[in-house]
Amino acid sequence: MKIYKQETVQHVNASLEECWSFFSSPKNLQKITPKEMGFQITDFDDKNMYPGQIIQYKVTPLLGISLSWMTEITQVKDHSYFIDEQRFGPYSFWHHKHFFEATPTGTKMTDVVHYGLPLGFLGRIMNTLVVQNKLKSIFEHRRVVIDKMFNSK
C-alpha cells in the first residue's frame, strides 16, 4: 500500500490556550469542515479530546455518496498535540497529527496527515485524480474559516 503525506501550517492570532480550547473539542469539527462534505457527528461522548475517545460521523465526500467514518483519538498532550486515527472508513490508513506551538504573536498550528487508499493501482489513480486535491481543498477551506474566526479580530 502506498502511503501519502499532506502537511499544512497555519498561524493563528490567538493564544495557545484559546486555540487548544477550540480544537480539542470534537464538536467544533463541523464548523471548519466544508458544508458540501455533509459532515455530521453521529456518536460522540461530548467531552474534550482524550486518548481512547471514539468519534463516529457521516461524510459525503464525492458524488453524494454518504460514508461512515470512525476515528479514535490515540494520543493527547495537553496544549501541545493530539493524534486521530481512522478505525473504520474510506481510507485503508489514516493518521492525523495536530500540533500547537505558542509563538510571540499567537499560535502555530501544524497538521500532518499520512493516508493510504484501498484498491491498489486504482487507489493510486484516485489519489492523483481526486483524493489529494480534495484533501487540499478541505484544508484550504479550514484555513479560510480559521482566518475569519481568529485572524480577523
TrEMBL record:
Gene3D superfamilies: 3.30.530.20
Domain of life assignment: Bacteria
Name under which the protein is recorded: SRPBCC family protein
Organism: Flavobacterium pygoscelis
